[in-house]
Recover the amino acids of this structure.
């Protein structure tokens, strides 16, 4: 431990000595803006501890801007702070805070336009409107940032990390809290989103549209207004993420709309109103997920086809699966564990001897006519479901797990 | 009236039927708390039991008690007492004993387990209130039916049918209507339709208090906005009161003109 | 038994009552878009469709409503009575789409990626469009252009 600390200290010293320009209240250069103006291409600016009240710092050259601990930038008049228009820029160890909100302008703490190889690392952004906003960028690294706002109503909120038309991005180890959407992607390709923690956002913890070939790994999305939304994208991998406590009128653990050829494996869906809501989901794989204590574990509507659901655990959900009539077909449910399964295993091979039908009649009815939900928990509904279980008439015949597991599946 | 009320109350409260009713609710609610651990879920399960049992026991007890004490009523009628006060006193005495058996039976375990100090205190109080309303409403309806019908079997049958209608058939018809008129805006309609069934009012009132209400989607949000307001709450309470008062008015009317 | 006879006319009355077709304000942050299921958030982009039978559908953006209308996914074109959208500059009231002018410009991003916004005055729309790449449409042109 001590050795690591020494190395870290040495590193700090070396960093300091390499700084070409030092900004501090008691040096000649008192503002970051001034430092950026005089700096030459490729130089490093070190910001000493202190409170700087600045805005509209436009970076048009390759620079490293590094803050000492307690280097805090308060947005002057609440305006945007950094605008990066060039390649190879590093922004590190800074605290940026207190920005105003706007309906028309995209005010952001760090805005990156048309740049390549920019690193935003270890910053703390407090009460910013947009936190980090990148447009038309490639090879960005957004790492170890704390992005915390205090959005209370939708009209005065914006996204924590907002990427638009970007490629090859790494978003790692960030903590995003109380924004509109925690992490927002539109037209972002070939990117990796890893180990982030997004919670208490007004709308979605993670929201992306038209963003193909991305990988989401080990993120945690907790208590967001409406969970996570994934729309109009192909070739997505979502692996080992946690979707928990997204509970509310229109909340989902994960909303999938028009998604093709994707993998959703080894995730945890716990205490969400709807675990996964799928609309037009085609050729996707759902394996080794845990669905626990959700209102609905799965709700799939509108021509969702050729999906495979294998080795998932469905435990203690109010409804395991809902669909509307005539809509989902050619999906395979096999070898899942259903806590509501009431069959038996005479040959002791661990697989239930009779198929499990996870769809009940009432959930089919409310998918078609949502207002009928007012009959929830009425005696009529209980009787109807019971009758349908014994003599199925309406529930889709193909929707059954022919080989349900008898015991909860342990994922490796 | 008060004398008759007091008499029938004491008479009933000593009977083993009422005591076993009390004891049953005690066991059920104690068991639900003990085995569930989760208070929200206990309240939800208890809700289903209360909706089912309070209305059913109310309906059955009303008829049975009336027919069983017919001779007593005829005896009292010979006394210089107002007719309406005899019947209403008699009904109220019976209802009061049912209600107190329910309140004590359900309430005691919740009190003993300290629910009153938890976040569920208000949904628990609502639960009790609704049980009281349902018992009163359905026992009054059945009392009125037996008053009108001399034939025991017919009276009993009609009472059971009325219960079945409100507990099951009404919701079935409502669901058919909702599916049939799917293309029309039905939020307001279903809200109004619910007001005409005391069991449905009770069910929705409690559901909206529980976190299960998030599953009710946009319609649920519309409802919870309605019931969450002072106006909505007062309207639904008013409806429940109306439901308990109207049968009494009918009892009063037919008591005046009934021949023996 | 007599009571039930009172109920019937009341029920019929309530059905009539609930068929009013007045536009209503969108419940931002709580309602979902009827087309894409996203929670409706942006005041400037929320739109609303009312059918002949009086059912109201709300959308997160102009494009979602146009898509649904043009593709006839939920109902036929002739079943639609009225469509409403909001003025981008003054998003207070819902306005009939026939009276609005629409701009499609990448410089004004909209919730579902089609970059559509609406304006109640033609002059304002022209002013906004100045210096930006993009085109202006009427509602009719828009429904023909977007598939």
């Amino acid at each position: 431990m001590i050795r690591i600390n020494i190395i870290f200290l040495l590193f700090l010293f070396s960093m300091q000595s390499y700084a070409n320009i030092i900004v501090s209240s008691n040096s000649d250069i008192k503002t970051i803006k001034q430092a950026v103006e005089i700096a030459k291409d490729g130089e490093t600016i070190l910001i000493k501890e202190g409170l700087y009240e600045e805005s509209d710092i436009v970076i048009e050259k390759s620079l490293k801007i590094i803050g000492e601990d307690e280097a805090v930038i308060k947005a002057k008049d609440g305006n945007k702070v950094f605008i990066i228009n060039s390649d190879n820029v590093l922004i590190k160890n800074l605290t940026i805070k207190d920005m105003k909100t706007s309906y028309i302008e995209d005010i952001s703490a760090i805005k990156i336009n048309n740049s390549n190889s920019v690193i935003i690392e270890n910053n703390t952004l407090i009460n910013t409107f947009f936190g980090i906003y990148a447009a038309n960028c490639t090879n960005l690294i957004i790492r170890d940032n704390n992005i915390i706002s205090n959005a209370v109503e939708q009209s005065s909120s914006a996204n924590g990390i907002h990427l638009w038309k970007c490629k090859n991005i790494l978003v790692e180890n960030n903590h995003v809290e109380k924004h509109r959407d925690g992490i927002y992607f539109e037209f972002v390709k070939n990117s990796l989103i890893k180990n982030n923690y997004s919670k208490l956002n007004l709308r979605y913890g993670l929201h992306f549209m038209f963003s193909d070939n991305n990988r989401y790994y080990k993120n945690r999305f907790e208590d967001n207004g409406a969970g996570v939304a994934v729309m109009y994208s192909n070739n997505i991998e979502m692996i080992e993420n946690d979707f928990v406590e997204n509970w509310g009128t229109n909340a989902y653990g994960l909303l999938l709309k028009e998604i093709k050829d994707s993998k959703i494996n080894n995730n945890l869906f716990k205490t969400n109103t709807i675990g996964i809501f799928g609309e037009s989901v085609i050729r996707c794989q759902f394996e080794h997920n845990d669905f626990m204590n959700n209102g609905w574990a799965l709700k799939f509507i509108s021509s969702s086809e050729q999906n495979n659901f294998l080795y998932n655990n469905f435990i203690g959900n109010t409804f395991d699966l809902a669909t509307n009539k005539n809509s989902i077909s050619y999906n395979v449910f096999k070898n899942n564990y259903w806590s509501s399964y009431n069959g038996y295993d005479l040959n002791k091979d661990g697989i239930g001897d009779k198929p499990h039908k996870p769809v009940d009649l009432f959930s089919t009815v409310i998918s078609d006519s949502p207002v009928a939900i007012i009959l929830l928990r009425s005696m009529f509904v209980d009787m109807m479901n019971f009758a349908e279980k014994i003599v199925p008439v309406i529930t889709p015949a193909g929707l059954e797990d022919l080989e349900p597991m008898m015991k909860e599946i342990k994922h490796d | 009236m008060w004398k008759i009320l007091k008499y029938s109350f004491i008479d009933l409260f000593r009977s083993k039927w009422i005591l076993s009713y009390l004891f049953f609710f005690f066991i059920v609610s104690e068991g639900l708390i003990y085995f569930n651990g989760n208070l929200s879920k206990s309240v939800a399960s208890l809700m289903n039991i209360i909706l089912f049992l309070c209305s059913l026991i109310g309906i059955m007890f009303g008829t049975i008690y009336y027919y069983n004490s017919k001779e007593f009523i005829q005896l009292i009628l010979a006394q210089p007492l107002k007719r309406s006060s005899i019947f209403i006193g008699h009904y109220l005495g019976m209802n009061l004993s049912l209600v107190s058996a329910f309140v004590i039976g359900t309430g005691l375990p919740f009190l003993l387990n300290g629910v009153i100090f938890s976040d569920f205190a208000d949904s628990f109080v609502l639960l009790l209130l609704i049980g009281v309303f349902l018992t009163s409403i359905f026992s009054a309806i059945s009392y009125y039916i037996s008053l009108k019908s001399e034939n025991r079997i017919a009276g009993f049958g009609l009472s059971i049918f009325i219960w079945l209608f409100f507990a099951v058939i009404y919701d079935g018809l409502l669901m058919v209507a909702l599916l049939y008129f799917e293309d029309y805006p039905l939020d307001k309609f279903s809200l109004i339709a619910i007001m005409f069934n005391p069991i449905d009012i009770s069910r929705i009132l409690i559901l909206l208090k529980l976190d299960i209400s998030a599953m009710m989607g946009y319609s649920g949000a519309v409802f919870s906005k309605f019931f969450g307001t002072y106006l909505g709450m007062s309207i639904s309470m008013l409806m429940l009161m109306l439901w308990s008062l109207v049968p009494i008015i009918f009892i009063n009317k037919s008591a005046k003109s009934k021949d023996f | 038994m007599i009571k039930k006879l009172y109920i019937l006319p009341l029920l019929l009355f309530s059905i009539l009552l609930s068929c009013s077709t007045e536009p209503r304000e969108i419940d931002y942050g709580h309602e979902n878009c009827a087309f894409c299921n996203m929670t409706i958030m942006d005041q400037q982009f929320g739109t609303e469709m009312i059918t002949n039978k009086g059912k109201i559908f709300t959308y997160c953006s102009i494009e979602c409503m146009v898509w649904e209308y043009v593709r006839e996914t939920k109902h036929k074109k002739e079943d639609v009575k009225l469509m409403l959208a909001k003025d981008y500059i003054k998003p207070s009231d819902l306005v009939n789409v026939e009276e609005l002018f629409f701009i499609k410009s990448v410089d004004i991003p909209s919730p579902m990626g089609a970059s559509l916004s609406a304006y109640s005055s033609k002059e304002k729309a022209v002013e906004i469009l100045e210096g930006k790449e993009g085109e202006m449409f009427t509602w009719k042109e828009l429904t023909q252009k977007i598939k």
About this structure: The helical segments of chain A are 2-18, 32-38, 361-368, 379-390. The mean pLDDT of chain A is 88.
